[in-house]
Amino acid sequence: MVLTTVVDVFYTVLFPGSGRGPLRRPLSRLVHGAFGLTRGLPRRWRRRILAYAGPTHVAATLLAWFAMLLIGWAAIYRPALGDGIVAAQGSTVRSWGTAFYFSGYTLTTLGLGDVVAASPAYRALTVIEAAMGFMTFTLVISYFLTVYSTLTGRNAFALSLHQRSGGTGRGVDIVRALWQEGPAGAAIQLAEMATEMRRLVQTHTSYPVLRSFHDECEYDALPRILQTCWETAALLRTTVLVPAERPELAGSSPREIAASAGELCTRVVRAPIERGPLPSQRERWLADHARAREELLAAGVPVRDDAGEEYVDARAGWEPSVAMLAHHLLYEWDTPAPS
To answer: In angstroms, rounded to a whole number, what is the distance separating the alpha carbons of residues 245 and 281?
Structure first.
């Protein structure tokens, strides 16, 4: 049990991107399955309950590590009670309670001293346990501080997208805002979006626990972030007729945004995603594109006349991915996840 915990702490804290860990993966599936039972609840209640998924995942991990270390070391000490480990005064009670007590205060480095190691071997073991407890708690605190700091960064990016789109979360509104910003401002914003998307890929690969965190604000949802960025990139690449004086709109940033979104979906879902629109979706997407085109024209953004089919092809690549990601992460989504 002690070795299992050490290995799990190693993979979770020091090598988080490996995806391994004898405790991490079963705990993740357990928490995910428990919160998956909320699928039949009303939307408002489900959103409130899912807000506790991330903190519950963190708490379950910490409790599992502490319990495994406590029980494992108690099992090591139990046979030595009254011999290698004795009470400082009076007779030694040879029970599991005494073993847990000695293991607990050694692990937490309290060192009360009413039960002590009497033999050199068990004195060495208590030093090892105390050092293990100190290092484990230090690593865990550093790890989860990083997780919450990263989560704050993700939410800040989501808020920036929400504000840039005027509170709608639509890519067409971000494209209009980019056009109004002018070349310099648009170039900076697109570069920031590309950078934040690359950061999302790396952080959600390195810290899988981030996927468990939901927020009651809809725009904070990871699938919503990806949808907004993907739609923005798709409109810039297929619909906007980029003039010579606005080269930033046709630069590498939109391609990088779309590529990062696709990479994140692939790494999180880890399952084949069927692409391509159904006939009903095709008509809906063409209608969506026509409305977006009209809105862009009204804002003075030059657009192509023959971009409908290209937009549908691009959307066929990202909408099923976002829907599958939302289903995988327990989010409610307007578009049904592909089977």
So the answer is: 35
Q: How far is CA 52 from the centre of its chain?
A: 14
pLDDT per residue rounded down to tens, the chain (339 residues): 999 999 999 988 888 777 788 998 899 899 999 999 988 888 888 889 999 999 999 999 999 999 999 999 999 999 999 889 998 888 889 999 999 999 999 998 887 788 899 999 999 999 999 999 999 889 888 888 889 999 999 999 999 999 999 999 999 999 999 999 999 999 999 999 999 999 999 999 888 889 999 987 888 999 999 999 999 999 999 999 988 889 888 889 999 999 999 999 988 887 666 666 667 788 889 999 999 999 999 999 999 988 999 999 999 888 888 988 998 899 887 654 333
* CATH number given to 2-140: 1.10.287.70
* Whole-angstrom distance, CA of residue 178 vs CA of residue 39: 38
Q: Under a CB-based contact definition with an 8 Å cutoff, are residues 303 and 297 in contact? A: yes
Alpha-helical (H) ranges within the chain are 2-9, 24-36, 43-50, 53-77, 96-107, 120-164, 171-206, 222-238, 252-269, 279-298, 308-328
CA distance 100 to 90: 19
Q: Which three-class secondary structure state does DSSP give residue 90?
A: coil
User: Where do the structural domains in the chain lie, given as residue ranges?
Assistant: 2-140, 165-328
**Angle between the N-to-C axes of helices 120-164 and 222-238, in degrees from 0 to 180, rounded to the nearest 10:** 40
pTM reported for the whole predicted model:
0.85
Contact of 182 with 241, CB cutoff 8 Å = no
CA-to-CA distance for 246 and 186, rounded, in angstroms? 9
Q: DSSP label at 85?
A: E
Q: How far is Cα 275 from Cα 277, in angstroms, rounded to an integer?
A: 7
Quick one: tokens of 210? Answer: 């981030």
Number of Cα atoms under 13 Å in the Cβ half of residue 214? 20
d(CA 161, CA 164): 5
Q: How many CB atoms lie within 10 A of CB 181?
A: 16
